[in-house]
Structure formats: C-alpha cells, structure tokens
Write a structure and sequence with these properties.
Blueprint: H1 5-13, E1 18-22, H2 23-30, H3 36-40, H4 53-60, E2 63-69, E3 74-79, H5 81-84, E4 106-110, E5 113-119, E6 134-142, E7 145-153, H6 156-159, H7 161-164, H8 169-176, H9 178-185, E8 189-195, E9 200-204, E10 207-210, H10 216-232, E11 236-239
Parallel strand pairs: 7-11
Antiparallel strand pairs: 1-3, 2-3, 4-9, 5-8, 6-7, 6-8, 9-10
C-alpha cells in the first residue's frame, strides 16, 4: 500500500460532495503527521499530480482540493465535476405529492469564492464583488482570534460599497452589523468570501441543482447552511440582518 493510499480510500468511501477537514483529521486518516511543507506552503495542496504522490491520492479518488487555510489548518476536498454528474437531476423529474411521514435528505453544497482581505489600516479586495444575489462570509481576525459574520444580500455589489469607504462606521454597521465596524476600528483584518448561484447547490435525496439565490427562501436556506457549517467548526458566528 502506498503511503497516502489511506486518504484515497477514505475519499472514495464518502458519499458527500465535499469534505471539510482539519489537518489533524487528514493525519488521523493517514496514521502519521503531515510534513512541514503541508503547513507552510499552499502549493503542497495543489492539484498538479505527477510526481506528487500525496496529490495523486486525492486525484485518483476523483477529488480535488478546492480551498486550504494554512493559518487555521483547514482544507476542503471536493468531488471532481465528473463525480458530481451522477447526482444531477433528471431532465423531467416525476412530481409526487408529499405525504406525512416522508423523510427527505435536504442539504446544501457551498464553494466559497475568496475576494481578498481588508483591514483597518487600508487594503482593497483583490477581486470585484459581483452585482448578484448571494451570501457573504466575513472572517474577522484580531489578536489571534477569529469571528465570522455571515449574511445575505439581493445585490452583493451594493452591499459591499460601504467596505470601500469603511471609515464610515455608521454605514458599515448598517450594512454588516456592529461587530464588523468594531473589528475594523481595532485594526482587524477582514477576509471576504461570497457565494453566488454558480457555487451554491441544493441537494434533495442526493440529486442536486444550482441554488436560485434570487429567491429569498433559497437564499435563506443557503445562509442557514453556511451558519451551521461555521458553528460546526467551532467558530463564533454572528448572523447579519439581510
């Protein structure tokens, strides 16, 4: 058995679309500690394959690394598009009337897009905020502690206009809640991530489709899923008003 085969077998055994893992979770699967380069270099988690035997383990299983957070030692593995195709809905699904006692597995798959970081001492987002309905996640990092603010907006671009002029504390508080304004005033860094219809899916009994985030009900569902996920990671979460 190859050194990283336990990781490949573990990923092949999963039924979910993605696996959000701490580095320690990966180490438990492997049975040994990850090398120092896994904590120091983002490239260790790339999807190049070739002579990189550890990368070949997840690629051979039909998975890729979609994001990695070296500071928090977190990694997200996601099934490849070919693997996901099997759970897409049929072209003409049969409509059935729901009845009492039915059990339905309703889940969401979220793939965050990082737009960059902003801080009290300056800085700008490296990517523009889309003018589209969606969900945002702000990670406030100050004095080694992290807090997450999650919210939604019908137009993310308009909501984030205040971040370009974040010295306006009143406008920032109105858009994202007082936690963000207070963090910026303390000189905290704010990592900005968003979900739009291109990277949020709703799954019903294993069959998935893109979330219709223009619909406030589905936007609220995706927001709730993001909050539950953050709390499951042990993070302090504040839910911003829509």
């Amino acid at each position: 058995m190859g050194k990283y085969d336990p990781l490949r077998y573990h990923l092949q055994s999963l039924t979910a679309f993605e696996w959000n893992a701490a580095f320690s979770d990966v180490e438990r699967v492997l049975g040994f500690e990850l090398p120092r380069s896994a904590s120091d270099h983002r490239a260790w988690w790339s999807n190049s394959g070739g002579v990189q035997v550890h990368q070949n383990a997840w690629l051979a299983a039909g998975w890729t690394v979609s994001s990695v957070d070296l500071s928090r030692r977190l990694v997200t593995f996601m099934r490849s598009r070919q693997q996901q195709a099997a759970v897409r809905p049929a072209a003409s699904p049969v409509k059935a009337r729901p009845s009492a006692g039915d059990m339905v597995a309703l889940t969401a798959r979220l793939q965050w897009t990082e737009l960059g970081e902003m801080g009290g001492n300056g800085g700008a987002l490296s990517n523009s905020v889309p003018n589209a309905a969606g969900v945002y996640r702000l990670t406030l990092i100050c004095d080694g502690a992290a807090e997450v603010v999650i919210g939604s907006a019908f137009d993310l671009g308009k909501r984030f206009e205040t971040m370009r002029g974040r010295n306006d504390r009143k406008a920032t508080d109105a858009a994202f809640g007082p936690a963000v304004g207070k963090a910026l005033a303390r000189g905290a860094q704010v990592r900005v991530e968003v979900l739009t219809a291109d990277n949020a899916w709703i799954l019903r009994d294993g069959r998935g489709r893109k979330a219709e985030l223009d619909d406030p009900v589905e936007r609220e569902l995706v927001t709730a899923a993001a909050v539950v996920d953050a709390r499951a990671r042990g993070l302090q979460v504040t839910v911003a008003e829509a």
